[in-house]
Amino acid sequence: MTSIMRLASIETKMFFRDRLSVFWTFLFPVAMIWLFGSMFVGNEMNGLSFAQMFVPSWIGVNIVTTSFFTLGTVLTGYRETGVLRRYQSTPLQSWKILAAHTLQGTVIFFISAVLLMVFGMWMYDLTLPAYIGSTLIALLVSIAAFFPFALFLTSLAKNTQSAAAISSLFLNLMLFLSGATFPLEFMPTVLQYVAKILPLYYVIIMLRGTWSEAPISAYGVEVGILLGIAVVSIILATRFFRWSEK
After folding, report:
1. Backbone Cα Rg of the chain
2. Buried b (16+ CB within 10 A) or exposed e, 191-204
3. 136-168 per-position pLDDT tens digit
């Protein structure tokens, strides 16, 4: 456990030294909420205010960006540059490396989530979650599903460019088709069905719901689907973990 904590601490420090990563993780979501706020603030959708709709949604989107870009693409880069090969000569097993990066990603994500919530409260009168315990459970379930899912998908990439392409593809698909940015009701029926294939769709439903409407017990289907994704992804991420490109 000490080695996991130490590696997670080192990776977190390295993350904060990368200005581009800090921008995309912390500042870009704030800018997007402000942009959408200039278009939709004052309007209610499905009985929810702008802040209740979009702040939880962008917290969900940040799970995706953290999963694919802070974890998956970085580990692919480590494999490409030989960093993982050097780890292989130490007592660190592959699961400890994955656990350390998952811990690092979780810390970074929760910092970004608090930042988005504070911005929403300051700019758009967002209230604290009505079921705050349920919202925290929803976040943990979402992290458990998305982090190993992203680690598995990017482990299939041959290099950093391929991993970035995979990450960008999945991010854009889920960003525009999950209901995170544009209400699904405005989309064609076919795209509404496509949205239900995407994991972020269920994350958005849980976060919006537990923030304003009902406890986590009302979202058993969504929790079950995401936990199923988590179990399968953990198995696949561990199975396809590679120390090097060979």
Report:
1. 18
2. eeeebeebbbbbbb
3. 999 999 999 999 899 888 888 888 888 888 888
